[in-house]
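Folds vary. Our protein:
___
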Amino acid sequence: IKGECEYMQRLQQRQWKIWLAILLGFLLMANHVFADQPEAMKTVSEWGITWGSPDETITDIISSPDVERWMTVKSGGRMPVKPIDVTTAWVRIKLPSVVPMDYGMYIDDMYTQEVSVYIGDRLSRDVKFDFPYDEQRGLFPLSTIDGGKFVYMKLQTSMDRLGIHSDIRIDHYS
C-alpha cells in the first residue's frame, strides 16, 4: 500500500507539472498572437486639422485646392489653439492600407458638441450631443474596404474648446 501511495503522489505531481506546462504554452501563444499586430496599426501617428465654417460641406473640404490649410497634429502632441470666433474644425485621418474585419476607430477625448464622420465623401456617422457639455469620446466602425482612405470628421461647438486631445486608436472592437 505504501508503494501505491508513493506512486499516486508522483503521478499527481507529474499531472500538475503537465497542466502547468500546457497553461504556460497557451499564455505564450496568446501573447504571440497579440504581438502580431504592430503598434502602428493601433495608434494613428499623426492627423490633420483645419478650422472651418459651419456651412462647409465634405465636398468643399475634399475639393479645396488649399493644401496648406491643414495643420499636422502628432499623436501625443498639442492641438493648435482654437481661434476665438471659430466654431467648426475638420480633422483628416489617413487609414492604414489594410483594415482588418471588425476594426474601428476610437477617440477617448474630443471636444465637440456635434460630430459628422465621413469615410471619403460617404457620411458614416452624424451625432449631436444634446447636453451642454463638450468633452466626448467616440467609437466609429471601419470596414475592410476603407483601407487607405481618408476619414474626415467635422467637429462643431458653441463652446470654447474644439478638437481631439487624445490618441486616435484603430483596433479590433467587436
In short: The two ends are 56 Å apart (CA to CA). Residues 113 and 132 are 8 Å apart (CA to CA).
